[in-house]
Amino acid sequence: MAGPSKRSWNSLTVLSGFIVPKGELANTPDVADDSGSDDDEDGDMQWLDMNEIDDANAGVSVAAPKRLCNQLVHVRDKFGRVHRVKGRFPLQDPWWDLSVECRKSGGNMYLTTGYPEYRLNKNPSKDLILLFLKKYDVHPQHIEAFHNALQREPSLQEQPLNFENLCDIVEQYGKLNETTEAVSKQMLSLINFTGREESQALLAPTWLRFGPKLLPKRFYGLLLSKEERLKVLDTVTAQEPWKLGFGPIMYWEHRFIGCEATLDAFKHCNLLERFPPAEKDAIYIYDFIKSKCRREGHTFVYEKALHRRTFGDHNIVDRVKALQFLVDNKITVQLEGKVSLKRYYDYENNIKGGIGELLEKDKISKWMIDSDDLQGVFGEDEDQKRAAEFICKNPVTVMSGKGGCGKTYVVSKVFKVAHRQILEEEAAAEREEERCLNETDSLSRLEDMENSQEDQEGAGGEGIPEGSQATVSRSGKYEKEDSIGAILLTAPTGKAAHLLGKRTGLKAFTLHQVIWSYRNRKGDGWKFGDVRALVVDESSLVSVQTFSTLFGILLKHSCLQKLVLLGDVEQLPSIEPGNFLTDMYHSLAPIGWSIKLRTNHRSESKLIVDNATLISQQRLPEFDQERHFHEVRVDREDMLSSVVTRLLQNGRANDHKTSQFVAFRRKDCNIINEVCCKHYSQHCIKNAKNRSWFQVGDKVCCTKNANISLYVDPSVTPQPEKEEEKDKEEGKEKGQKSKKSGNDVRLCNGEIFFVVEDTTHISEKGKSRRWLTLDDLERQIKVDYHEVKSKGGLKHAWARTIHTYQGSESDTVLYVVGTPTRHQNWQHVYTAVTRGKKEVYVVTSPGALSTSVQTLPIFRNTHLRNFLVNLLDPRRPPPNKGPGGTHSQARGFVTALDLCTGRGSGAGPSTGTDDGEMEKFTSISEPGKVLGEGQGTPM
C-alpha cells in the first residue's frame, strides 16, 4: 500500500493503510472516541410505499441504512507512520486495507472528504489472523494451541495463511487428533456465523471496493446480504455500475429496494467513464430532476427546462434518447410536456385513485353520521356548523384554519357522536345475531326431541352450542381489544398526534406508526383493520408519499369510508416534494367539500391571529406589548447571544416549560441552545470531547422515531429475562429480525422532554448502564441513555427550527428571523408566529422581517390538483350565469386571496412557470362557489 500522496489538482491527500487496532497505541484516544456522534444526517429508515412493504415482507432485499458516526481513528501507512484521521469508516478492523481522500487539518490530523475504498488484506500476518480469531470470541487457549500447531505442523503450512484459506486450514487442523477436531468445529462455527464480514468480502471484492462510496449508509447491510444476492450486487457493480444510479432498475430487474447511488458518488469512484453514452446522459438529467424536485418541492419539471439545461462537466449527447431511456425503464413519466419522477407521479395518481374509490364506496353504502345530536354544540360559529355537516355527509372533507379556530373541536364532537352511533349499531347487530342463534337453538331442540334418546345423548356428547358460542365470543372480544376501532386519528409528528389525542379524548397515532404497524403485522389480523374514518391533523406537514402509502394500506386492508384532513393551507408545506393539503383543499372547494374556519376562539391570541392574517397578505405585523406581540431588535447577527441572554434575564422566557425559541437557521438554534443551557442548567451543550452533554434540568427532544428500552426494576423482572430482551434488541440493531420487547417505549420525532434524573446501574456481571428519566409534563419514563441518544437522536430543545417545530404549540413563542435569505419567505414567519397561543416575540434585525414577509414561496409544480379536478368534474355544480345570461368560464381553482401573494405553493398560486409562460387562474371566494376570471382579486 502506498503512503499519503498529494494530488496537486485538488490539494487532496490520498491516504492508504489500515486502522490501528484498539489499544495498540499508548496515550491515544480510543478509536471509538468521536466528535461527531451527534450528527443527525442519518434519520429514520426511508419509508417504503405499500408495494415495497409487501415486497419486503415477501423477501425482497431491502437496503437498510446504518448510522455512520464521524470518528477519530489512527491510520498506519506502509512506512509505519501513524496519522490521525477524522471521518466515517464502516469497517475498522486492521485487516481491511483502506484508501481515502483527505485534507490536512494541521499537525498530523486529516479530515476525510468522502468515504473509503476497502480491500481485504491478501497477505495477513499470523498475528493479524490471531487477532481476527480473538475478535470473534475464539477461546484464548484455543487460539494459542492453533498458533503453536501452525508453527510445528507441516500439513498446516502447505497453504498460505490468509482469509481465503483460513477455513481450509482450520479444517485441516481438526484432523490432527480428537481434541483439535472439537476445537476446529467450534472455531469454524464462530468464523462462519460471526465473521461474516470477511467471508462475504471474499465473495464481492468489487462491492467491497466501491460500495462504501456508492451507498455509504447501506453498504454494510448489503455486504451481509444472502450469498446469491451479494453476488448479483457485485456483478452489477463490476459489469454494469450505471444500474446502481437508477433505483427503479435495481428494483424491477434485480429486486433490491433502496439501492440508488448519486451522481456525485459515481464521480468520486471514477465510474462514470464505464457508463454507456445514453446511460451517462440519463443519469445527469435524472440527477437534475431529483435535485430540483427535492430543493423546490416539485413533483414534475417542464420538459423545456430539461432541454435548456446544460452541465459544466458533461455535454449531453442525445437528450431525446436519454429522456426515452428514463421513460422506458420506469424512472420517469412524460405527460403533456411535463416530466415526473415516476414514484411521485404514482403517489399523486394513487391518491386520486383512492379518492375515487371512496366516492364509489359512498355510492354503494353511504355512511351518514346523524347530526341531530350536534344541535347547539357549535354556538354561533357557522363555519364550524358547516364543517360538521360536511363530515357527517361527505366521504372526504378538508378543513383549514388557524390555531384556535376549533378544527379539532369539530372533529372531536362529530366523531364522539359517530363512535356512540357505531357502538349502538354493533349492540343492535349483536342482539339480532343472538336472536337468530336462539331461534336456531329452538329449532335444534325441537329436532332433538323427535330423535331417539340414544341419538339425543350422542348429539349432546359431540357438540355444545353454548361452549361454541362462548369461544366465538371470547375470540370476538379479543379481536376488539386488539383493534383500535372505527375511528383513526393521526398526525405527521408525535407531538401533533399527542395534542390531537389530548384534545379529542381518543387515542391518536403518527402516520408512520400506522405504516410501521402494517409492515410488522403478523397473520391476517391487523389492529387498524376495523377503521372506517381516517382523520389527519396538521396535513400541511404531510408528504404525498406518506399519505399515498397510508391511504393505500387502509383502503386495501380496512373498511375506510371517510377521510377528514385538518390543517392550515397558509402554513409551510411538507419539506418533501408535493403540495398535498393545498392541492386537496383547492380541488375539493368547487364541490363544497373543503371549508375554512375563520373565527378565532382564543381571546388571548386575537392579535396573533390578526397579525398572521397580515403576514399572509405580505404585510408587516402590528406590534403591541400590551397585547403580547413584541418586537426585539438585533442590530447585528453576532448580537443574538446577548439578546437571548437579556430576554432570559428579564423573564421573557422565564418558564421553559411553556415557552419555546424558534429559528429559521439551525446555526441560530445552536447559539440559543448554548445560552439557554447555561441559563437553565448551568452547563454547556457540548463536553470536552465535543459531544452533546445532557444533564438533569435539560430540555431535550427526539429527532427520530425509535423504540427505546425502558428501565425495569430487577426485583420485578428476573435478570435472565432482561438480558434476553437486551440481546433481542441488539439483534434488531444488527439487522436481524427480532421480536419487539415488551419493556420498551416508542418515542416519536418532535416529542419534547425534561431530564429529571440521571442514574447509572451496574448489573450482576459488572456492566454499567446509564438511564435518563424523561418528563413530558404528563408522564415520566426511564430510558436507556445511549439508545435514546443514538436511535432517538436526542437533542437540546430550547430552540427548534421552524420546520421541526411546525405542528407544535407553546404559550410563548420567541421567533428569531435571522439574516435575510431568499429561502425564508412569509410562510416561515406565518408558521412561526402561529405556534404561539398567548404571546409572541419576534427577534429581528432592521429590514430582516420586512424582507422575509415580502418574499414569495416557490410555486410547487404538482399533478395532484389537476388529477382531482378531472376526477371531481362531474360533481362540480354548473357555473353561475354572469351578466347578460352567459356562463362565467372558470379555468382553475385557487384561493380568493390576493394572487400576487404567491399562494399555491402553500397558500395559493404563483403564476411563474419554468418555461416563462404565465398561467391564468380562477379565484374562489368560498367553498363551492367559483368566480369567473375578472371576478376575483385582480392580478
What can you tell me about this protein's structure?
- Helix content is 40%, strand content 17%.
- It is built from 32 helices and 34 strands.
- The chain has six domains: 202 residues, no CATH class; 58 residues; 196 residues, P-loop containing nucleotide triphosphate hydrolases (Rossmann fold), CATH 3.40.50.300; 170 residues, P-loop containing nucleotide triphosphate hydrolases (Rossmann fold, 3-Layer(aba) Sandwich), CATH 3.40.50.300; 99 residues, no CATH class; 47 residues, no CATH class.
- The C terminus is likely disordered.
- The strands form eight sheets. A six-stranded parallel sheet has the order 16-15-17-18-14-19, sandwiched between helices. Strands 2-5-6-8-7 form a five-stranded mixed beta barrel.
- With 939 residues, the protein is of the alpha/beta class.
- β25 and β26 form a beta hairpin.
- The longest helix has 44 residues.
What coarse outline follows from CA principal-axis ratios?
A: globular
Question: Can you summarize the main beta sheet?
Answer: 6 strands, parallel
Our estimate of the beta-strand percent is: 15-25%
Multimerization state: single chain
Supply the helix-strand structural class: alpha/beta
Q: Kindly state the percentage of residues in helix.
A: 40-55%
Rg, Å, rounded: 32 Å
**Strands, count:** 34
Low-confidence stretches: 5-10, 30-45, 452-481, 719-740, 884-939
Domains counted in the coordinates: how many?
Answer: 6
Q: How many DSSP helices?
A: 32
The N- to C-terminal Cα distance equals 68 Å
- The average pLDDT score comes to 83
* Spatial strand sequence of the major β-sheet: 16-15-17-18-14-19
Biased composition (Basic and acidic residues): 428-448, 720-736
Protein name: HELB protein
Domain DNA helicase B winged helix: 233-341
GO molecular function: ATP binding; DNA helicase activity
